[in-house]
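ok so i was messing around last nite and threw this chain in just to see what happens. nothing serious, just curious
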Amino acid sequence: MKNSEALYKASQLLQSKVALETGRFSDLNRILALWSWCLQQNTIEGLPSLKEANRTQDAFELLHQTMTAAGLPGIAEYLSIIDYNLSGKDIRELTQLWEEAHWSSANHFVDTLADVDLEKFGIRALPTRLGQFVAQILGNTTKSLLLQGTGSFAFMPHIKASKACLITESESASIYAQCIAMLGNGRILAGKDPLLSTEQADTVIAMPRIGDRLSAELASPFRSNLHDIASVEAVIKQARRQAVVFVSQRFLHSKAGGDLEIRKQLIQNNLLDAVVILPAGAHPLDAGIPLVMLVINHDRTKQASIQFMDASAIASGVDLRHAVRRHKDAEELFWQRLIKEWSDLDSSAVGRLITSKEIAANDYDLSALRYIQPESVRLLAEIAAKHTTVTLGDLVSITRAQNLQRSGEPSTGQLYIEVGSRDLDERGQIVLDDSDRTVEANKANMRLIERQKLQPGDVLIVDKGRVGQAALVTSDCPDNLVAGQVFAILRITDTKKIKPEYLFRYLASPLVQSYFVDVARGANVKVLRAEDLQDLPVPLLELPAQQAVVEQHQLIQQKHQQIEAIREEISQLASLENLL
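result:
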């Protein structure tokens, strides 16, 4: 029987006997598994066998004392649960299951617990591959290891340390963390914000709260008012040799709140060793947020290069947040590719070795586009080299729409329809329905309405959210349409140079759509900057060649109409009236 299968059956037996909420029940199962581990490895002297049912309470007391002596919060609340809920027969059945499980190492034991949690409770497994990757960068042994934040304990099984310490704000740190700390010869400092810690270690790994603002009592020593970015400053002082700290992507380019000064400190003091931009889901604690992994090293040689990698480009099209359940193979391929690219940055398509001078020349901006050219940008450059090319800003005026004020002034009686991204169909046309939002014109918003009022020939580009989606305003559009705030309005300045249909088809092409996605910024809401649009290269074909594209555009629209007619026919055939 597989270890995970044995523990899974044990958890089923426990659940049938003990009424606990999922989190506490999971902890109980882990404690009993830890007991089994301690018995097999003889890690606690005098620990009675599980078969000695009349000594169950004694065994838990001894386990509790051992964990308390190791600086762990202990398991006092669980001492009576087994005694009152499980019979001697139940204990013997559990014992038989656990005796069939044999773990080759502490890491094997921890991974088995993670597998059981994943199967039974749908909990995202600990980031084993991320832990291995961090261990590869930092080295898998250190004299002392300091872990900051609740999520950081997941790295303990991957880095051997003579002394290990987990600092967490939680008064009752996870039993899972306690188990790992115990197996890793560590201790837990609970109920303390890591930023207040004066602890030091040779190696530090920090998983702070991403995006949370600092409280008044924490803010004064730090230049940033955000917890994750302030942690960079804290880690610099806490690490004697090296550290890894996870931050939001904002840190790469923001000039607000001291962020720029912290980046300068890292570069000018020769502390930054590596930057790895991770995709959403690479660390389960902040699964929905793409994180950045900063590697800090106090022992860098002068003029050493900085390892830089945009690993989010590797995961393009793969949602790691759901990879465990939906496409685990894809997740494994991602980590294999990441490690391969990291081992050979000289030939990597998503990584580079960069110098401190190069970063300083870019005003200490660490954004990926500063150093790694996406595939779409490279291909567009190749196309531009073969044709007479101008920038989009040379061909159109670009108006970034704003939020239209709807109150505060008496209405003029004029009504306008505000177009949103939901109003664009797959043909790239505006389709209005009964749910369209109307805007009453008044003195306060009339200037914006006039600025954002649509004209035939305008091209709309979504520049916030689902960036890049394009639409062409046709000649039959009503004269009371205004663009909503998600759009940039492109208006051709010289129709003798370029035809609207040609510009629309170019912007709607798969390659340019990929470009928009690649250059957009923002962790949660993607945004196209003005320069992303203005600097886009556009091949300026001769007008006859453009006319051929116009005819192709008309053919595409006809095909869409035929598809819509077929869909309508299928819908009618499948209706209940036709079936009965």
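not much to say yet. The longest helix spans residues 543-573.
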